# Entry
Amino acid sequence: MYLQCCNHTHEPIMLLDGVAVTIGRSAGTKILDKLCSRTQLQIVANHSKKYAMVKQLGANPSQIDGINIGQDRKCDKKGTSSLKSRENMHNSQKNKTSENFDNGTAADVGPPRATVSKSSHWSQGLKSSMTDSSLQVYKDDRVIVIKDKYPKAKFHFLVMPVENIVSTVHLNSAHASLLDHMWKVGRDIAKRSCDDDTKTRFRYGYHAVPSMSHLHMHVISQDFDSPSLKTKKHWNSFTTEYFVDAEDIIHEIKTEGKVKNRRHMTELLKNALRCHICHTELKNMPQLKKHIKDCR
DNA sequence: GTTCTAGAAC
DNA sequence: GTTCTAGAAC
# Structure
């Protein structure tokens, strides 16, 4: 098993079974950018199970399939997905650290771009939910809509493109009409789901830094009445600016050709709990949930 | 993302 | 004593 550079700018790095390998800025990887630590990532391969555990040691973010690993956090990695480190989002060292894991078969020697993950890591879970007919509520040639597996309100859907797009940071101006379509489908689903009650308010949008891979637009009723709404993180992800309205994303794509960098917004998830209607601060989740039941 | 649980908060 | 949260593990 070895780690192969997507751009073939350096020799593959051997991954012996169970032996930790540390990679980062070095002569071997030809990475020069100081934002990448000399010990950026630690990789431990498991040959029999054909995956590797990737741990971020450096302070700056590294990603797997566009999702941040986080410092001192671990992710498992299987198949041919790409591994990105911070500096390929920068200038001079563009894509120098895109790597493919390869188990040695010729067919798996991948293209330089990120490929569809075969990983069973939780962050890939939406890919299987997409095709789960028990969750699916709408499908056309461009989008699939599923019920959120753990709804945070009475009505909570995810609108996802059929095309494999990892997240909003992977969007460009060519996706403008797709985003318009996702927004329109979302509004239709919302209308259809509760046409007996036109007072039910909905919001349509994206998380600033999603946890799950595969682009998904939330369609969520504003009652937030659900047993799956449990934590401060849940609450703040839907009621602070961490929740970015679909219209804002669409506007940014149409005018700038890309979305704003919102990585710093993870801080908002630690905000004090406030009612989304009257903005009263509540001490804890049980009190918040009690309060929003009858706040008008 | 969720689940589990230790220990903080009450 | 119980309730609640935050962090680790998955």
Notes: Chain A has two domains: 2-113, 124-295. Residues 84-98, 100-118 of chain A have pLDDT under 50 and may be disordered. The longest strand of chain A covers residues 41-46. The radius of gyration of chain A is 21 Å.
